[in-house]
Design a protein that fits this description.
The protein has about 325 residues and is α/β, with parallel strands linked by helices. The protein is about 40% helix and about 20% strand. It has 11 helices and 11 strands. Helix 4 links the parallel strand 4 and strand 5. Helix 1 runs parallel beside helix 9 and helix 5 packs across helix 6. It is elongated and about 70 Å long. Bound molecules: adenosine-5'-diphosphate. Adenosine-5'-diphosphate (ADP) binds next to helix 4.
Amino acid sequence: MVKSIGILTSGGDAPGMNAALRAVVRTGIYHHCRMFAIYRGYEGLIHNEMKEMTSSSVSGICRMGGTIIQTARSKRFMDQEGRKEAYDNFKRRGLDALVVVGGDGSFRGLHAFINEFGIKGIGLPGTIDNDLYGTEYTIGFDTAMNTALDAINKIRDTANSHNRIFIVEVMGRHAGDLAIYTAIASGSEEVFIPEKIEDFSAVVGRIEKGISRGKHSSIIIVAEGDESGGAFAIKEKFSKAKPEWDIRVSILGHIQRGGSPTATDSIIASRLGYESILGLLDGKSDVMVGYQSLDRVVQFIPLEETWTKKKSIPEDWQNMAKVLAS
Ligand code: ADP
């Protein structure tokens, strides 16, 4: 029977992590569990940085960006020796389950921790990249997408005023979700994602066609992990092919991680946090709670599948982005 639960946020921060923390703590307390926040991710577990939470410890955090219990990357947790130190603190505190909000790296760590020491654990998908198999949306993705969209709208104004082409780099090392969703939402002309190698001369041809039809600007969205090498490398290629084009680069960078979560992120985080406790109390472990918006259901996916299986961007989404920009 699960009675004492620890929660930590790990890896890259994402808006909505606080809403998830609030939901986990309050649902746990509602079900008569003792709840402990572990600060600075796995590194804090190794250093025994924990605090027992009450319902009021999480008051007013639902709309806050970042994570009030902080996050970290922990080299020591990558080794069994580090994980043993973490486990000793975990046991000394009387914990029997761990909730981890993070991305695939954090889940690999949790999977190892569960299997080495026989504890219970559940993962909540917290990353702006939306790159985890088994969930339609990850906590933070919607906010990051809206932040990028707002920035691109502003860039469009200046691009139109000067007849410019803007190459806008958004986050996403291995996944093009943020790039393709923002490209569609912002009406951008082209998008480069890591999942697909673009025919560069075809891209140049399409932009040229747009210019000849009287377009005053073109926006090209690039995922930071794209095969072509990111925004500056793509600009070089364009400048070689079309030296007469006025091309500017804008890297959106860390602004995409910050800010108050959107309503959608707050709701997804709250729901997944709530369900993670119900799952643990129901005996579930070594799984991630995922969310499917169509039926508004949650599902429990084996942690290992979240990184061994690949979430793909449907081909017709890529085609749609092209058709709508033509
Ligand atoms: P994210 O969870 O956002 O993908 P990282 O990949 O940086 O972020 O992972 C966060 C932390 O999870 C790492 O700093 C490390 O402590 C732990 N971790 C990542 N991969 C592993 C692994 N294979 N084994 C054990 N721990 C891991």
